[in-house]
Structure formats: structure tokens, C-alpha cells
Write a structure and sequence with these properties.
It is a single chain. The protein has 315 residues and is of the alpha/beta class. The chain has 3 domains: 83 residues, Winged helix-like DNA-binding domain superfamily/Winged helix DNA-binding domain (Arc Repressor Mutant, subunit A); 114 residues, D-Maltodextrin-Binding Protein, domain 2 (3-Layer(aba) Sandwich); 103 residues, D-Maltodextrin-Binding Protein, domain 2 (3-Layer(aba) Sandwich). It is built from 12 helices and 13 strands. Strands 3, 4, 5, 6, 9, 10 and 11 form a 7-stranded mixed sheet that branches. Strand 7, helix 9 and strand 8 form a beta-alpha-beta unit. The protein is elongated.
Length: 315
């Protein structure tokens, strides 16, 4: 049997309206054309599909069986059309992001949550890397969007501002500097330091400060990730530098103290890098525009396809 999709659509309309004339009006087609389609279906399945009653056309057992399958076919067809339309308009796809751990911990979760609440068919592949690795990944087309810090060569890439954070010094409770309202980096350098990952944005800032101040660091250990830094400081392995947001959880637990770092470089500015945006697929362009927007981290209202608001969502 070879079923025509239009015939199945008209058949469903007749079943639901119990009238050829009403089905024809609903589908904007002549009643005679609907009647012909139904007759062709009956010939195809070799069984009557409707009984005439005082209440209209009633589907036969054969029609009930056909109706179940026809509705599945119509639903799948509608879904297929919807998904293909999303691809055509750039509302569907996958975006590869490589980002520094600081932005993954602090900013990206909310920003991506708000973006995906609007663009539900877009998927994100997120990978962590140092700023140097991030820029290289975008330049080599291993990533579509990069989030990095520092002044790195980014030939051929467009750079946009993203967000900023503030570094604080964390130290065990009872440390000689724990009661200070702010602290200079030179003062921290007198104590053992839990160092940042080599090649990271923070590492470049620390090494630059060491050179400018002609300091000698007592770096007993280097670790990757601010959660690990806080754990090492909790274990009294030294003092560390972490973003203010990351320090709050550990300070609240009462095991460490955070003191603002009194240096101009304590405020770090993060950036977005992307290859020529005009040549990128629509999902990449839309996400770049969202991330570079000042409103990216604000809650959004989620709207369903009928246009009714279904609530709000926060990252």
C-alpha cells in the first residue's frame, strides 16, 4: 500500500470533524476533492472507512486503526518540518566553546542557561583550557568560541569584551595577614604560595608582578583549578589567589579567610575570541552576540511556541 500524505491529512480531518464538508472547510479544499480522497483510501485499504449516522460520519474499525497510524505520521511529519525549519533559520545546531576555568566557574553557567532557555534546539560542547590553549583552539578551528584572559596574540580573530572578576588572597584562619582589610602582593610573597596552573591567565599576572617587584616566590605547590587552591589553603599549605566568587563558599565554611588583593591587576578582564563572525553558522553568531551582551546573565522569560510565557529561568 502506498499512502498519500495529503489523503491521510484529509482523512484525519474527516474523522475529527465527522463531516466531509466541515473537513473541506477546515483544510481549505473543495468537498468533492475530499470525498474523492476518502474513496481512494477505501479502495486502497479494501474496506469502508465511515458509516453515515444522524450525528455525521462515524469511523469504522478499519478507520480507527488507520487513524492511529495516520496521526503518528502527521505528528512525525510536523516535527520533521519544524526541525528542518530550525536548521534553515540557524536555530538548531552545535557550538563548541573552549574557556578558562574561571569563567566556567563564575559566569558561563548562567549565561549559557539563559541562552539555551531561548534556543532549546542548540547544543553546547564546553571544554576547559588555559587562555593560551583557548586562543589556539579557536585559531585552529578546534573551537568556535573562546573565552580567555590576558594579552595574547590572536591574529585573524575578532576580540570582544566578556566579563571581569576580582582576585582576593585566601589564607587559613589565624594567618598573620588574615585581619587585614587589604593586602599587597609583595606581602603575600613573604609566605608560601599555592601557585596557579602554568600558562593560565593568573599565572601570567603573578609572574609579571614577580618580575616587576623583583621578588622570589616560595611556591611549594602548583595546582589546576580554584577549588583545588582553596582545598590546599584549607590544609595550611600556603596562601592562594582566587576570584572573589570562588572564595565565598570556603570563607562561609569558616576554614579560610579572604582578603582583597590591593593591586591594579587584581581586576581581571575576560574576552571572547571568534573567527570572522560573518562566516560563522547562525548558532555561533547568536551565542557570540548573547555572551557579549550586558544582559546575558539576567534571568529570561521562557516562551512556548503558542507565545504564552511559561515562567522564568535563572542560570
Amino acid at each position: 500500500m502506498r499512502f498519500d500524505l495529503l489523503s491521510l491529512k484529509l482523512f484525519v480531518a474527516v474523522c475529527e470533524s465527522k463531516s466531509i464538508s466541515r473537513a473541506a472547510a477546515r483544510e481549505h479544499i473543495a468537498a468533492s476533492a475530499v470525498s474523492k480522497r476518502i474513496s481512494d483510501l477505501e479502495e486502497l485499504v479494501k474496506a469502508p472507512l465511515f458509516h453515515r449516522t444522524t450525528k455525521g460520519l462515524e469511523p469504522t474499525a478499519s478507520a480507527q486503526a488507520l487513524l492511529r497510524h495516520a496521526r503518528v505520521v502527521m505528528r512525525d511529519l510536523q516535527q520533521m518540518e519544524s526541525e528542518l525549519a530550525e536548521h534553515a533559520t540557524g536555530l538548531c545546531g552545535r557550538v563548541r566553546i573552549h574557556a578558562s576555568v574561571s569563567t566556567i566557574l563564575q559566569h558561563l553557567p548562567r549565561d549559557l542557561a539563559n541562552f539555551l532557555a531561548i534556543h532549546t534546539a542548540i547544543r553546547i560542547d564546553l571544554e576547559e583550557g588555559t587562555s593560551q590553549q583557548v586562543v589556539r583552539s579557536v585559531a585552529e578551528n578546534a573551537a568556535d568560541i573562546g573565552i580567555f584572559g590576558g594579552y595574547l596574540p590572536a591574529t585573524g580573530l575578532q576580540i570582544l569584551p566578556y566579563r571581569s572578576d576580582k582576585l582576593v588572597a585566601i589564607m587559613p584562619v589565624g594567618h598573620p595577614l588574615a585581619e587585614r582589610k587589604k593586602v599587597k602582593f609583595a606581602e603575600l610573597a613573604e609566605f608560601d604560595l599555592v601557585g596557579p596552573q602554568k600558562g593560565s591567565f593568573l599565572d601570567s599576572l603573578v609572574m609579571k608582578a614577580v618580575g616587576e617587584l623583583n621578588l622570589t616566590l616560595k611556591m611549594r605547590i602548583r595546582v589546576n583549578g580554584f577549588e583545588t587552591v582553596c582545598s590546599m589553603v584549607e590544609a595550611s599549605l600556603g596562601v592562594g589567589l582566587v576570584p572573589e566568587r570562588c572564595a565565598k563558599r570556603y570563607v562561609a565554611a569558616g576554614h579560610v579567610t579572604a582578603v582583597p588583593l590591593d593591586e591594579e591587576w587584581a581586576t581581571r578582564n575576560w574576552k571572547i575570541c571568534v573567527r570572522d563572525p560573518a562566516s560563522q553558522p547562525p548558532p555561533v553568531r547568536m551565542l557570540v552576540e548573547h555572551l557579549s551582551s550586558k544582559d546575558a546573565d539576567r534571568p529570561v522569560r521562557v516562551v512556548n511556541f503558542a507565545g504564552a510565557a511559561t515562567g522564568s529561568r535563572r542560570g
